[in-house]
Write a structure and sequence with these properties.
The protein is mostly helical and 76 residues long. It is built from three helices and no strands. The longest helix is centred in the N-terminal third of the chain and has 44 residues.
């Protein structure tokens, strides 16, 4: 009886760490995607670091001010 109770407590403890681990993993993946998008804007569109980060943040937050857009140089 004592072993099953300790296993339940251990499972609950591991479950708590699992949520923190998932959150950390998700945030790391989001940060990696934002960095990759910024690098892609610098490489493919020729934007400066500031402009590429600006486009990335406005795209990720779906604000889209329209001041910069991917492919705008090709259309001009």
């Amino acid at each position: 009886m004592g072993k099953s109770v300790s296993r339940i407590k251990e499972y609950r403890f591991l479950q708590g760490n699992s949520i923190a681990s998932r959150l950390r993993s998700t945030l790391c993946l989001l940060l990696a995607a934002l960095i990759l998008h910024s690098l892609a804007m610098m490489g493919f569109e020729g934007y400066s670091l500031f402009d590429s980060v600006w486009v990335t943040l406005t795209t990720a937050t779906t604000v889209g001010y329209g001041d910069l857009a991917a492919g705008a140089a090709a259309r001009a």
